[in-house]
Task: structure prediction
Amino acid sequence: MRGGRSRLLELVLDLCVFAVCALICVLLLVRAGTISRGSERLTRAVYLAQTLAEDWKAGEAAPRTVEEEELTGELRETEGGGAEVTVTWNGETVYTIGEVRRNEG
Amino acid sequence: MRRDQTELPSLALCALFAVLAIGVTLLSGGVYRQCTTRAEKTGAGRTALSYLTNQLRRSDRAGAVEVTSFGGGDALRLEQEEGYELLLYCYDGQFRELYAGVDSEAVPADGTALFPMEVMSVRARSSRIFLALTASDGGTWETSVSLRCGESAL
Result:
């Protein structure tokens, strides 16, 4: 009887250890999913920022705001005659191009 | 023979352990598949747009870029060294490049398949080239390139 109880206790402890490991695994998986989504968002943000910058370099007016899927790209001219592009997602800055210059000649 | 009173709880715990193990394994597999699929999609779009942008940049000179049709869709014709041109287009589910003589009678299937891509849409306005690529899963990747030599490139 005593041997049975100790075996049960051991199983409960094993299960607790497993549950902790499983929880850590799940948290890692959630983190991996978040990073993966963030990576895709960053790639799209880079191309959105590049498009806004290229359009401005070709003579498009500023300031300009463009919505693409969940991203918002905003281009505004700076005092130095250049432009700055910021891409945000839910109000959080995803990507920025600090200084864009128009094509010369 | 009298059964051990702890046998049933032990079995229940083992079953719970097995269910949790299977659940974690399935969840891991699902997340791993999602991550790899997303990485492949993102990688394909990024590679395609980078390749196109770089090809446009290296051909950015007067009269060297032309938006045309080839293989049943939009295509970019980029002038190379004298007498040769590079055609970039989508055909048969693949993004292809075809390096050929200007007067060659090459057909779309002659091009080298670079990566899977269903449709390439190209528009030229002023000195800008708008590029849109559509993958087989319907995902689209867009960018715009401002040619440094202006409209004279087109």
Remarks:
- The first strand of chain B starts at residue 65 and ends at 70.
